[in-house]
Write a structure and sequence with these properties.
InterPro entries: MetalloPept_cat_dom_sf (IPR024079), Peptidase_M64_IgA (IPR019026). GO terms for molecular function: metallopeptidase activity. The protein is an alpha/beta fold and 241 residues long. Helices cover 14% and strands 29% of the residues. It has four helices and twelve strands. A hairpin with a 5-residue loop joins strand 1 and strand 2. The two termini are 31 Å apart.
Length: 241
């Protein structure tokens, strides 16, 4: 799966209020992507009000008339253009995780998702270089979950998935300030045990990429050695569990 590792800045130095943009072609089925336009100075946008703000504009790819064939073996209807517009180069570059090199592995395969209970572990604060660590942590957590008399007998009812979404930063945020991670998990102020997600919609979208009927219990696992978590729509925990 291809992903742009860096975006090359095009154009001369501009004033502080200039707006920047980049465009990517994304396959919504596989999340394969290609950089179409690297970061460059663009027309101002009313929704971009300060250097750290950004918006994403998505349009479906309608035809191949321009002979643009960057994403091979793909359904045309699954391709879309994503334009990232920001108030600074950093604001645009910081959103490159919107089309990440997502790696999905099925840790426990008990049958079709339609008639199984599917648990989806999504990692937060695991950099690209920590992919192996993430899958090792999830395998350990899965083994611990189904060890013992309580849950072992129910294992045939479950599928367990692990989704690695590379983060820019390693670890999770503290003091109420998320880091630059996939789902921006953070601890709020002096509260150490509570871990909160800052990008719930993105977590929902990533969970759906596992497949139809396969997102029964979405769980966000933070790359952090200190115990903590949260209940609710997402089961939030750390790798220390």
């Amino acid at each position: 799966m291809k992903i742009f590792r860096s975006l090359l800045l095009v154009g001369a130095t501009a004033a502080a209020l200039d707006t920047y943009s980049a465009k990517i072609l994304v396959d919504t089925n596989t999340f394969e992507c290609e950089l179409i336009d690297s970061v460059h100075v663009s027309q101002p946008h009313r929704s971009v009000e300060h250097p750290d703000s950004f918006i994403e504009l998505t349009t479906k790819r309608k035809s191949h008339l321009n002979d643009l064939d960057l994403l091979r073996n793909s359904e045309e209807g699954a391709q879309e253009f994503v334009e990232i517009i920001g108030g600074s180069v950093d604001a645009v570059l910081g959103q490159r995780q919107a089309v990440p090199t997502t790696v999905i592995k099925k840790i426990v395969d008990s049958g079709p998702p339609k008639n199984r209970i599917d648990i989806v572990f999504m990692g937060d604060g695991y950099q690209a270089s920590e992919e192996a660590l993430f899958f090792k942590d999830i395998q350990r957590l899965t083994d611990e979950m189904f060890t013992g008399d309580t849950f072992t007998q129910y294992l045939p009812l479950f599928n367990v998935w692990a989704v690695h979404v590379p983060s820019v930063d390693s670890g999770i945020g503290v003091g109420g300030k998320p880091r630059n991670t996939a789902f921006q998990l953070y601890r709020d102020g002096t509260e150490l045990r509570g871990v909160y997600p800052n990008k719930p919609q993105y977590a929902r979208d990533v969970c759906k990429t596992v497949g139809e009927f396969a997102c029964d219990f979405p769980s966000l696992i933070g790359n952090d050695a200190y115990y903590g978590g949260l209940g609710g729509e997402f089961v939030v925990a750390t790798s220390s569990v």
